[in-house]
Each structure stands twice: as C-alpha cells, then as structure tokens.
Amino acid sequence: MSAQNPLIQVEGVYNAYGDRLIHRGVSFEVQKGEVLAILGGSGSGKSTLLRSLILLNRPIKGTIKIFGEDIWKLKESQRHKIFQRIGVLFQFGALYSSLSVLENVGIMLEEHGFYPPRNIVEISKMWLDRVGLSKETYELYPYELSGGMKKRVGLARAMATNPEILFLDEPTSGLDPYSADKFDELIISLKESLHLSVVMITHDLDSIKNAVDRFIMLKDGLIDFDGTLQDFIRRAHDRPLEEGNLFNSTRGEKFWKGM
Ligand SMILES: Nc1ncnc2c1ncn2[C@@H]1O[C@H](COP(=O)(O)OP(=O)(O)OP(=O)(O)O)[C@@H](O)[C@H]1O
C-alpha cells in the first residue's frame, strides 16, 4: 500500500442543500487495497459524501481526486471514464424489478460495453457464483429474493465490470447476523484476492471489526475521527457516552467482546 498515491483524495469539501451546510471542509484519503468506513449519526452527511464520491452530487467547494483526477473539474466524457472504473452497491441493491437475476448482472456489462455480447452470460454467471448464488437463482426476479440475496446480486453487478474501487451503502443493514457475517467475509475475500479498495457507509459495529481497516466519523459537518478501531477504542475510554450514541446497530457483540 502506497501512502504517496492514494486512490481517493478528498480535500476541504463543502456540501450544502440550499442554505444548509452539510459538510464544512471534509478531508481524508483512501489508499489502494484499503477498506474505509464512513460513520456518523443520522443526518451527519454520510450519504451526501458518498454521492459526491460517486459523481452524483457536486460539492460547492473543495476537491475530490479519484485515480489522481479532480473528478468535478473533468468534462462529462472524462467523468464517465472514472465512473466506469468504480462499482457501487446501493443500500437495497437497486435491482431492476422486471429483469431476472442473471439479466440484472448482464445489463451492467452491456451498458459498460467491456465484453463481447456472446461472453456476457458466462461472465454474469461467474460473478453470481463468486458471490455465492447458485444457478437456481439465475431466473428468479428481485421480488422472489431475500434481502441478503438482493445484496449479493447487487454486489455481483457492481463487481462484474472489474472496478478498482467499490462503494457500498450500508451493505449489512437489514441482514440477519449470520448473513451479515457472510457478507463481511465476501467483502474481505474480494479485497484480498483483487486488492480492491472499498469505501462503505455502515452503522454495523461487527462489520467494522470484521472488514474495515480504518474509519472516518462525521460530526457537525467535519471529520471528528479518522483512524483504526484500536485508535477509536483508546479514545472511547475517555468519551464513553459520546461514542456509545454513535451506533444504532443491534449487532456489535464481537466489537465489545475482547476489546
Ligand atoms: N436532496 C436533499 N435535499 C435537501 N436536504 C437533503 C437532501 N438529501 C439529504 N438532505 C439532508 O441533508 C442532511 C444529511 O443527509 P444524509 O442523507 O447525507 O445523512 P446521513 O448521514 O446519510 O443520514 P442517515 O444515516 O439517516 O441516512 C439530512 O439532514 C438530510 O435531511
């Protein structure tokens, strides 16, 4: 991992809705192969920040560099090229309800135009297999899937175009603890086998313990914490009530055990 060439560099970012400032100078970096979580209370601006990183919400001030490119200064066509190098898993999978599982993955490959049409079905199947979905699921429609299965299809779709950075919005929310653990394992295995960088919004303490290298915490429009879990635990000893309020997850048993 090179600290000199971060994949993502966020510098002095301000976001606002109308007169209301959401971020007041947010700065952080993400290195290659790193899993970074974005934490913060409800309404602290996690989704807004994620939307700025995935080219959906232009900051009013500051710079965001991805792969060294100042993404909000690029022309639309160049921005599209950056977008093709990232993968996004939205909170509820954001699957097309009228398409089968296999088609949901295939359509992403068709849109990106990376592979010849004759290979799209095989590549889609390969990714569905990689995220643990059997061939019995290929012809199912989203309404026939559990929450965990939808997230896996969403992950297969996000990964199918070989992204260098994967963005995840609350990947384990709504999953039972077993499925959430399995999802964490999947993220770790993707990260390790592909040297992928991952940025995820989460409230899930166990995910932070299982899968995350470092996390940032948003508060009052700024970054209130940037460090590892061990750094955070040290700080929590001094500020137990404040830190305890930050998580609204029912998971967390492993987090609090053995710390
Ligand atoms: N499109 C919008 N227009 C106006 N205000 C918005 C818009 N999107 C979000 N907000 C407001 O901006 C603030 C930050 O929202 P954001 O969704 O980024 O927070 P969050 O930390 O992701 O919250 P949560 O954990 O509850 O999802 C909230 O007060 C929200 O109501």
Automatic annotation (TrEMBL):
Keywords, sorted A to Z: ATP-binding, Nucleotide-binding, Transport
Domain of life: Bacteria
Transmembrane stretches, start-end: none
Domain ABC transporter: 8-245
Pfam families the UniProt entry points to: ABC_tran
SMART domains linked: AAA
SUPFAM superfamilies: P-loop containing nucleoside triphosphate hydrolases
Lineage of the organism: Bacteria, Pseudomonadati, Campylobacterota, Epsilonproteobacteria, Campylobacterales
Originating organism: Helicobacter mehlei
Annotated protein name in UniProt: ATP-binding cassette domain-containing protein
Cited InterPro entries: AAA+_ATPase, ABC_transporter-like_ATP-bd, ABC_transporter-like_CS, P-loop_NTPase
One Gene Ontology molecular-function label: ATP binding
